[in-house]
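Q: Convert this sequence to C-alpha coordinates.
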Amino acid sequence: MGARKIGWLVAALLSSLWSGEARLRTVGLEKAKALYDARRGLFIDARPFGRYMEGTIAGALNVPVKRFKRMSRWMPVRKDAPLLIFCDGPKCDASSALARRLAKAGYTELMVYPGGYLEWKRHKLPIMGAPRPCRCGEDYRPTAKALKIDGVTLYPDPEESSQVDARWIGPLLEKGAIPRGMHLIDVRPASQYARGHLPHAVNLPFDPERMKLEYTRLPKKGPILFTCKHGSISTDAWFSLPEKLQERVFILNAEVQCGESNCTVRPN
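A:
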Protein backbone atom coordinates (compact mmCIF):
# COMPACT_ATOMS: atom_id res chain seq x y z
CA MET A 1 0.00 0.00 0.00
CA GLY A 2 1.47 3.40 -0.99
CA ALA A 3 2.32 6.14 1.47
CA ARG A 4 -0.31 8.43 -0.06
CA LYS A 5 -3.06 5.84 0.39
CA ILE A 6 -2.01 5.23 4.01
CA GLY A 7 -2.16 8.98 4.60
CA TRP A 8 -5.71 9.13 3.26
CA LEU A 9 -6.74 6.22 5.50
CA VAL A 10 -5.27 7.90 8.57
CA ALA A 11 -7.03 11.15 7.71
CA ALA A 12 -10.31 9.31 7.24
CA LEU A 13 -9.90 7.57 10.59
CA LEU A 14 -9.19 10.81 12.40
CA SER A 15 -12.09 12.59 10.77
CA SER A 16 -14.42 9.79 11.83
CA LEU A 17 -13.78 10.72 15.44
CA TRP A 18 -15.74 13.93 14.93
CA SER A 19 -19.42 13.66 14.17
CA GLY A 20 -21.51 16.07 12.14
CA GLU A 21 -19.87 19.43 11.48
CA ALA A 22 -18.00 19.62 14.78
CA ARG A 23 -15.41 22.37 14.93
CA LEU A 24 -12.60 21.81 17.40
CA ARG A 25 -10.07 24.48 18.12
CA THR A 26 -7.66 25.30 20.90
CA VAL A 27 -7.81 28.63 22.73
CA GLY A 28 -5.33 30.42 24.95
CA LEU A 29 -5.80 32.17 28.26
CA GLU A 30 -6.78 35.50 26.69
CA LYS A 31 -9.57 33.96 24.61
CA ALA A 32 -10.76 31.77 27.50
CA LYS A 33 -10.96 34.80 29.80
CA ALA A 34 -12.82 36.82 27.15
CA LEU A 35 -15.41 34.04 26.82
CA TYR A 36 -15.69 33.79 30.59
CA ASP A 37 -16.12 37.55 31.07
CA ALA A 38 -18.72 37.70 28.30
CA ARG A 39 -20.51 34.64 29.72
CA ARG A 40 -20.35 32.99 26.33
CA GLY A 41 -20.08 29.25 26.49
CA LEU A 42 -20.06 26.55 29.11
CA PHE A 43 -16.75 25.73 30.79
CA ILE A 44 -16.31 21.98 31.32
CA ASP A 45 -13.73 20.42 33.65
CA ALA A 46 -12.71 17.01 32.27
CA ARG A 47 -10.73 15.94 35.36
CA PRO A 48 -11.86 13.35 37.93
CA PHE A 49 -14.42 14.60 40.43
CA GLY A 50 -11.91 14.58 43.27
CA ARG A 51 -9.66 17.05 41.46
CA TYR A 52 -12.70 19.16 40.54
CA MET A 53 -13.71 19.33 44.20
CA GLU A 54 -10.25 20.51 45.21
CA GLY A 55 -10.57 23.52 42.91
CA THR A 56 -11.78 24.48 39.43
CA ILE A 57 -12.68 27.45 37.25
CA ALA A 58 -15.67 29.18 38.84
CA GLY A 59 -18.94 27.99 37.33
CA ALA A 60 -17.42 25.02 35.49
CA LEU A 61 -19.36 21.79 35.06
CA ASN A 62 -17.52 18.55 35.88
CA VAL A 63 -17.76 15.87 33.17
CA PRO A 64 -14.96 13.30 33.61
CA VAL A 65 -14.33 11.27 30.46
CA LYS A 66 -14.95 7.95 32.20
CA ARG A 67 -18.31 9.15 33.51
CA PHE A 68 -19.43 10.85 30.29
CA LYS A 69 -22.49 8.67 29.80
CA ARG A 70 -23.80 9.30 33.30
CA MET A 71 -23.07 13.03 33.22
CA SER A 72 -24.38 13.66 29.69
CA ARG A 73 -27.85 14.44 31.03
CA TRP A 74 -26.42 17.69 32.45
CA MET A 75 -25.14 18.83 29.06
CA PRO A 76 -26.86 21.58 27.04
CA VAL A 77 -29.78 20.54 24.86
CA ARG A 78 -28.57 22.76 22.02
CA LYS A 79 -25.83 20.98 20.10
CA ASP A 80 -24.40 24.27 18.84
CA ALA A 81 -23.78 25.64 22.33
CA PRO A 82 -20.16 26.82 22.72
CA LEU A 83 -18.28 24.44 25.03
CA LEU A 84 -14.81 25.13 26.43
CA ILE A 85 -13.12 22.01 27.81
CA PHE A 86 -10.11 22.04 30.09
CA CYS A 87 -8.17 19.91 32.57
CA ASP A 88 -4.85 20.31 34.43
CA GLY A 89 -2.62 21.82 31.76
CA PRO A 90 -0.79 20.96 28.53
CA LYS A 91 0.30 17.52 29.75
CA CYS A 92 -3.30 16.51 30.55
CA ASP A 93 -5.08 14.90 27.59
CA ALA A 94 -8.45 14.44 29.31
CA SER A 95 -9.82 17.62 27.71
CA SER A 96 -9.08 16.41 24.18
CA ALA A 97 -10.51 12.98 24.96
CA LEU A 98 -13.70 14.55 26.30
CA ALA A 99 -13.94 16.83 23.25
CA ARG A 100 -13.91 13.75 21.02
CA ARG A 101 -16.74 12.22 23.04
CA LEU A 102 -18.74 15.45 22.82
CA ALA A 103 -18.21 15.64 19.05
CA LYS A 104 -19.46 12.08 18.64
CA ALA A 105 -22.51 13.09 20.69
CA GLY A 106 -23.27 15.80 18.14
CA TYR A 107 -21.86 18.97 19.71
CA THR A 108 -20.40 21.28 17.09
CA GLU A 109 -18.82 24.30 18.86
CA LEU A 110 -15.93 22.78 20.83
CA MET A 111 -12.89 24.55 22.25
CA VAL A 112 -10.02 23.00 24.20
CA TYR A 113 -8.16 25.24 26.62
CA PRO A 114 -4.71 23.57 27.03
CA GLY A 115 -3.56 25.89 29.83
CA GLY A 116 -6.37 24.54 31.96
CA TYR A 117 -7.10 25.10 35.61
CA LEU A 118 -3.44 25.43 36.63
CA GLU A 119 -2.79 28.36 34.29
CA TRP A 120 -6.13 29.96 35.17
CA LYS A 121 -5.38 29.74 38.89
CA ARG A 122 -1.81 30.99 38.41
CA HIS A 123 -3.19 34.20 36.90
CA LYS A 124 -5.51 34.63 39.90
CA LEU A 125 -8.70 34.37 37.85
CA PRO A 126 -12.03 33.30 39.42
CA ILE A 127 -11.99 29.80 40.91
CA MET A 128 -14.22 27.79 43.22
CA GLY A 129 -13.80 24.82 45.52
CA ALA A 130 -11.96 26.47 48.41
CA PRO A 131 -12.19 24.59 51.74
CA ARG A 132 -15.07 25.58 53.96
CA PRO A 133 -14.31 26.88 57.46
CA CYS A 134 -14.54 24.20 60.13
CA ARG A 135 -17.29 24.68 62.67
CA CYS A 136 -16.56 21.42 64.47
CA GLY A 137 -16.17 21.01 68.19
CA GLU A 138 -17.89 19.64 71.24
CA ASP A 139 -20.90 21.96 70.73
CA TYR A 140 -21.38 21.21 67.03
CA ARG A 141 -24.83 19.98 66.03
CA PRO A 142 -25.56 18.57 62.55
CA THR A 143 -28.00 20.64 60.51
CA ALA A 144 -29.02 18.02 57.94
CA LYS A 145 -31.82 15.57 58.62
CA ALA A 146 -30.58 12.29 60.08
CA LEU A 147 -30.59 9.18 57.90
CA LYS A 148 -31.19 5.67 59.17
CA ILE A 149 -29.66 2.84 57.12
CA ASP A 150 -30.09 -0.73 58.35
CA GLY A 151 -30.68 0.61 61.86
CA VAL A 152 -27.64 2.91 61.86
CA THR A 153 -28.20 6.65 62.27
CA LEU A 154 -25.88 9.08 60.49
CA TYR A 155 -25.85 12.68 59.30
CA PRO A 156 -25.12 13.56 55.65
CA ASP A 157 -23.30 16.73 54.72
CA PRO A 158 -25.84 19.59 54.54
CA GLU A 159 -24.56 20.61 51.08
CA GLU A 160 -23.65 17.28 49.47
CA SER A 161 -25.75 14.16 50.15
CA SER A 162 -23.02 11.79 48.93
CA GLN A 163 -20.82 12.89 51.84
CA VAL A 164 -21.16 12.31 55.54
CA ASP A 165 -21.08 15.41 57.76
CA ALA A 166 -17.34 15.50 58.47
CA ARG A 167 -17.77 18.02 61.29
CA TRP A 168 -20.06 15.57 63.06
CA ILE A 169 -18.16 12.34 62.48
CA GLY A 170 -14.59 13.73 62.59
CA PRO A 171 -14.28 13.73 66.40
CA LEU A 172 -15.81 10.24 66.54
CA LEU A 173 -13.29 8.90 64.03
CA GLU A 174 -10.41 10.37 65.99
CA LYS A 175 -11.62 8.50 69.08
CA GLY A 176 -12.28 5.28 67.16
CA ALA A 177 -15.93 5.52 68.16
CA ILE A 178 -17.82 5.21 64.86
CA PRO A 179 -21.53 4.34 65.04
CA ARG A 180 -22.11 0.62 65.57
CA GLY A 181 -22.93 -1.01 62.25
CA MET A 182 -21.07 1.53 60.10
CA HIS A 183 -18.20 0.18 57.97
CA LEU A 184 -15.06 2.23 57.45
CA ILE A 185 -13.31 1.51 54.14
CA ASP A 186 -9.91 3.04 53.35
CA VAL A 187 -9.65 3.18 49.55
CA ARG A 188 -5.98 4.21 49.32
CA PRO A 189 -3.23 1.92 48.01
CA ALA A 190 -2.19 -0.80 50.47
CA SER A 191 1.25 0.81 50.98
CA GLN A 192 -0.32 4.08 52.15
CA TYR A 193 -2.82 2.26 54.35
CA ALA A 194 0.04 0.37 56.01
CA ARG A 195 1.74 3.63 57.02
CA GLY A 196 -1.25 4.67 59.11
CA HIS A 197 -5.04 4.62 59.00
CA LEU A 198 -8.13 5.43 61.02
CA PRO A 199 -9.10 2.97 63.77
CA HIS A 200 -11.36 0.14 62.51
CA ALA A 201 -10.71 1.05 58.85
CA VAL A 202 -10.42 -1.87 56.40
CA ASN A 203 -8.36 -1.45 53.23
CA LEU A 204 -9.98 -1.94 49.81
CA PRO A 205 -7.80 -0.08 47.27
CA PHE A 206 -9.39 1.86 44.44
CA ASP A 207 -7.75 1.54 41.01
CA PRO A 208 -7.60 5.09 39.55
CA GLU A 209 -6.29 3.89 36.18
CA ARG A 210 -9.29 1.69 35.52
CA MET A 211 -11.63 3.78 37.71
CA LYS A 212 -12.57 0.54 39.44
CA LEU A 213 -13.20 -0.73 42.95
CA GLU A 214 -13.93 -4.37 43.77
CA TYR A 215 -17.26 -3.35 45.24
CA THR A 216 -18.51 -6.94 45.51
CA ARG A 217 -16.15 -7.21 48.49
CA LEU A 218 -17.95 -4.43 50.35
CA PRO A 219 -20.19 -5.35 53.32
CA LYS A 220 -23.66 -6.38 52.21
CA LYS A 221 -25.50 -4.45 54.93
CA GLY A 222 -25.08 -1.20 56.78
CA PRO A 223 -23.76 2.24 55.79
CA ILE A 224 -20.22 2.43 54.40
CA LEU A 225 -17.84 5.37 54.75
CA PHE A 226 -15.02 5.76 52.23
CA THR A 227 -11.86 7.41 53.56
CA CYS A 228 -8.48 8.42 52.13
CA LYS A 229 -6.09 11.28 52.87
CA HIS A 230 -7.93 14.27 51.38
CA GLY A 231 -11.25 12.91 50.10
CA SER A 232 -10.44 12.88 46.39
CA ILE A 233 -9.77 9.12 46.03
CA SER A 234 -12.89 8.39 48.06
CA THR A 235 -14.91 10.58 45.72
CA ASP A 236 -13.66 8.82 42.60
CA ALA A 237 -14.28 5.44 44.24
CA TRP A 238 -17.85 6.47 45.10
CA PHE A 239 -18.59 7.48 41.52
CA SER A 240 -17.35 4.11 40.26
CA LEU A 241 -20.09 2.29 42.19
CA PRO A 242 -23.47 1.16 40.83
CA GLU A 243 -26.13 3.77 41.58
CA LYS A 244 -28.08 1.48 43.91
CA LEU A 245 -25.01 0.84 46.06
CA GLN A 246 -24.24 4.57 46.23
CA GLU A 247 -27.35 4.99 48.38
CA ARG A 248 -25.58 3.53 51.42
CA VAL A 249 -21.99 4.57 50.70
CA PHE A 250 -20.70 7.97 51.82
CA ILE A 251 -17.54 10.02 51.35
CA LEU A 252 -15.43 11.52 54.12
CA ASN A 253 -14.48 14.91 52.65
CA ALA A 254 -11.68 15.72 55.07
CA GLU A 255 -7.92 15.72 55.50
CA VAL A 256 -6.87 12.67 57.51
CA GLN A 257 -3.43 12.61 59.10
CA CYS A 258 -2.34 9.52 61.04
CA GLY A 259 0.73 9.30 63.25
CA GLU A 260 2.08 6.42 65.29
CA SER A 261 -0.62 6.53 67.94
CA ASN A 262 -3.46 8.73 66.72
CA CYS A 263 -5.22 10.34 63.75
CA THR A 264 -6.59 13.82 63.14
CA VAL A 265 -9.57 14.58 60.90
CA ARG A 266 -9.94 18.10 59.52
CA PRO A 267 -13.06 18.73 57.39
CA ASN A 268 -12.40 20.32 54.00
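The CA atoms of residues 124 and 149 lie 43 Å apart.
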